Amino acid sequence: xxxxxxxxxxxxxxxxxxxxxxxxxxxxxxxxxxxxxxxxxxxxxxxxxxxxxxxxxxxxxxxxxxxxxxxxxxxxxxxxxxxxxxxxxxxxxxxxxxxxxxxxxxxxxxxxxxxxxxxxxxxxxxxxxxxxxxxxxxxxxxxxxxxxxxxxxxxxxxxxxxxxxxxxxxxxxxxxxxxxxxxxxxxxxxxxxxxxxxxxxxxxxxxxxxxxxxxxxxxxxxxxxxxxxxxxxxxxxxxxxxxxxxxxxxxxxxxxxxxxxxxxxxxxxxxxxxxxxxxxxxxxxxxxxxxxxxxxxxxxxxxxxxxxxxxxxxxxxxxxxxxxxxxxxxxxxxxxxxxxxxxxxxxxxxxxxxxxxxxxxxxxxxxxxxxxxxxxxxxxxxxxxxxxxxxxxxxxxxxxxxxxxxxxxxxxxxxxxxxxxxxxxxxxxxxxxxxxxxxxxxxxxxxxxxxxxxxxxxxxxxxxxxxxxxxxxxxxxxxxxxxxxxxxxxxxxxxxxxxxxxxxxxxxxxxxxxxxxxxxxxxxxxxxxxxxxxx
Amino acid sequence: xxxxxxxxxxxxxxxxxxxxxxxxxxxxxxxxxxxxxxxxxxxxxxxxxxxxxxxxxxxxxxxxxxxxxxxxxxxxxxxxxxxxxxxxxxxxxxxxxxxxxxxxxxxxxxxxxxxxxxxxxxxxxxxxxxxxxxxxxxxxxxxxxxxxxxxxxxxxxxxxxxxxxxxxxxxxxxxxxxxxxxxxxxxxxxxxxxxxxxxxxxxxxxxxxxxxxxxxxxxxxxxxxxxxxxxxxxxxxxxxxxxxxxxxxxxxxxxxxxxxxxxxxxxxxxxxxxxxxxxxxxxxxxxxxxxxxxxxxxxxxxxxxxxxxxxxxxxxxxxxxxxxxxxxxxxxxxxxxxxxxxxxxxxxxxxxx
Lengths: 535, 353
Hints:
The complex is a heterodimer of chains A (about 525) and B (about 350).
Chain A: E1 13-16, E2 43-46, E3 55-58, E4 84-88, E5 94-96, E6 111-118, E7 127-133, E8 137-141, E9 147-149, H1 151-154, E10 162-168, E11 177-182, E12 193-194, E13 200-201, E14 213-217, E15 223-225, H2 227-230, E16 239-245, E17 254-259, E18 265-269, E19 275-277, H3 279-282, E20 298-301, E21 310-313, E22 322-328, E23 331-334, H4 336-339, H5 341-344, E24 350-356, E25 365-370, H6 377-380, E26 391-396, E27 399-403, E28 413-419, E29 428-433, E30 439-443, E31 449-456, E32 468-471, E33 474-477, E34 492-497, E35 501-507, E36 513-520, E37 523-528
Chain B: H1 2-16, H2 19-33, H3 37-50, H4 55-67, H5 71-84, H6 89-101, H7 105-113, H8 118-128, H9 131-144, H10 149-173, H11 178-190, H12 194-207, H13 214-224, H14 228-241, H15 246-258, H16 262-275, H17 280-292, H18 296-309, H19 314-329, H20 333-352
Helix pairs in contact in B: 1-2, 2-3, 3-4, 4-5, 4-6, 5-6, 6-7, 7-8, 8-9, 8-10, 9-10, 11-12, 12-13, 13-14, 14-15, 15-16, 15-17, 16-17, 17-18, 17-19, 18-19, 19-20
């Protein structure tokens, strides 16, 4: 039973740039209107050195010349184009440890896009997978503050134009597998601009669709590309965001892919290593009126506390953000109107998205990083804007209401990652902004209680990704994936309202069911997976 | 009928003119029939030289010259014909065409007014700036030739210019009037400059709060920018002013629906359906509102009724999709699959078109 303790009228966040976080997202816009320019970049919140403080990894774009010559060279040797890892210090400031961590450069042939975080070798240290237009990179965390590029050995280069990625365990073998979305078949030599005299970025339909990639973790530091045999390659699309959850409660994690300008894909995990795309049949593929969606980011969590994961997809203007409510029995219904989300979209462009309980009242709130694709959209339609405000909407018993995020800045935001940066029990957000510094939304906090859980898998994967966790009537699905091109804090955060204790139930990917009663509120709790189910 | 008239003309010509002239006339007529325009012109010119009082010779020469697009020479020949017979309708019509083709629309009008050719007269009036006359005549012409693309184009242009002329007059003479602000707002709306449109609509309403349609148009401004609460207020004000306006009722219902207020939306949509029965958009919104409220039977009824009216259109496709969702929610899997198949069939048809 969750009791709402009221909503604060003050802004939810203090938006500031912590000392030391001096990153600028270099997307390098050109008159050529290369589509990659408007698509980066990802952000990850992870504790790479296990010191208990969240660190920030930011993906950079690269240098683009106008026009580009073949082969593509994005000049990533110049430090301004590096991806960056910032270690959090005890005082809340950050130190750039990119070079020391071995993460400098990213190959001149790569223009950065997104990032995924997961401990693929179960050694207790989170690893990084960076997506690019070009080749992706898997960085193994050595546990000593450094990373090693193991892409070639692991066999996860991908190629083409990768966007978002996520680690998950689709076959419940205790080893994290990897899913990579890819946008389209495109290269700078076959680029074009649209919009006639206005010269705008082209919509995705101007370019051929492509396949997403599923890598199976063999457990020996290598992965097998199972896209074909799993069925994932059977459908091409314009993949951008990806999120995971077990939507039908069969114990196997399913995949939702946000496709741009077309039907969205819901890949049902058949439990035998194969997937079937069921977006249309399940009612989670198109808008309420049967139209395609320009799916960008996606979150796959339970917003109405009915225990089933719902899907929220961010889109472009003249569409409303898709809110696919899980009705049970494998069916979804668009509830954009009932939830109030449709009212808050329609003229905005959403990218990174999260469902997190920012006010700790027991209901997951909605946060969306916004900004139009076209940097000259005002010329085409003066009622739309390239720079947009961030959307924060508080959840009141399943209906969302716009709230003051604390920032009135108009930006072209893209990635968004969610986590408790200062370990105060209140969820914070980091977003990326094209051509600018990231935005850090530090939660001002309040009087409600909370509980943050770290899963320690034993039979399941070490971080328990894929577990379903119930706390006082709320459900979260353990994942670092979701949003857009970004990776979230692996810890599971629950707002408890006025409750000072909690009952915790965990359904581990291994099938083990664990219950912990009378858990004290306002603590970071690590729960170790038991050998067998408890009552 | 054409053949009889041609034979009759030749017979009359033979009665009135010399055999040599008649022979040239016959040769010219034949050449004209076979589109040998240079021969026809030469033969008819010979006729006019041999028989300068033979009016039909000048008319035929003028017609052949028009066909040859030598409008200046045609006008000269036809003017000669009209000197011989000032009431000859065919000559007035042809000279009207020739003058119009050369851009002398004002000169063409008196000739075209003497014959029953509202299309040509309307075009001449449009070019001469008599927009009201042009609209009236082009409408008459379209009654005779429905769907004629040229006439439709000219009517559209004449109507647009007439509208602009009226608005320009309004702006020039009454720039601070509520109607002037309304007209300005409409222009801004078309240009998608919503803040300016909003400002002028508000000013129009400040000056005259009961101005018809302004609340609805202002509501549309808000609706297009997703400000549904404000849109609702304006549509509600419109329905208060005009309770018999079905569109206002529909728009109010739709604005409520967009806010998820399905319960409030339904009576407004029902009222719209009562005022203007069986409008597909109203039926779709009614079905959607009922579905949102969980009234599956009413939703199904509206959607099914709509599909009885609307077939093969994008709205029909949408409706099949909505029905699929309705059935899916009820666990009627087979029905949902059937509707999805219909939806996909129409989608594919639409994509192919």
